Amino acid sequence: MANIKVLLVGATGETGSAIVQGLLASKDPKYDISALVRPGSMDKPAATSLKESGVKTIPGDVTGSQDDLVKALSGNDVVISSMFPFTLDLDFVLADACKLAGVKRFVPCWWGPVLPRGRNILGDKKWAILDHIKKIGLPYTKIDVGWWQQLTIPKLLSGRTDYMLLAFAPSNTLLGDGNVPSALTNKEDIGHYVARIIGDPRTLNQQVLAYTEVLTPNEQMKISERISGEKIEPKYTSAESIAETIESAEKDVAENPHDIPKIIRLVGAQYQNSWGLQGDNTPENAKKLGYLLTSELYPDYQGIRFETLMKDVVEGKAKKIYEGRF
Length: 326
Description:
This protein is α/β, with parallel strands linked by helices. Helix content is 40%, strand content 15%.
């Protein structure tokens, strides 16, 4: 059987790099992997690293001419978008080019928790892109990956987890009462799930939730205490506080619609409300919204569980996400 030809847009980003590694490791199916790289970045270290790993780099720019973009995409079975979330409008451009290039499956830029329409301004833009994809008749697969385990690492008094903590993911701050379940995925597993999904005819023109386990924040805290041997004192943020943040951020964004930090503040609070309070990010809710689940599609695949990640973190062996990016 011929290898499946895949082209990635955003291959050097945090999610894109995880997808690349999963595709490279796949044995069945096998993939011929290309990455679209801006012409001015072809000789930069990130592009050089892609080439050294076995990925073919193709010069091209989604913001350039449509004819050049169609030429760059032509001949690929699958095109995957993992661009910067705040440039999502480019997925409209990419979808149109995929249609003209005869791409057999387009994977738009989602890569987050389950979001019903109306919960999140970023999510609603993604839904608009999917509506466009369907309108032009482009074959697609939409993939959500739940909440990353790496974004839920608690801070320990000993400081052993400090190297994994990120400023935009406050540690030890739980939403509501901390008992709302959420689908979790280790970032390192994303590419392995994608390798299964995009080679599976059952997932064509479907939306898929890729996830490994479902835990509440309180359960994660208990696991972390057991593994670390340290007591953790969580802080709880009320639903009222999150609602106030959303209201304030909505006003700021209305007054400054192109201010990325203000948009991030709003999107972050809306995410917290969705997965942390409303319970949107669960397999049960995903199925109600028409998703397929990787737990049912690929029951043989055992992803990295939060407990395993915490053991590695405490031992200083875990790989930090967004290394050198924030």
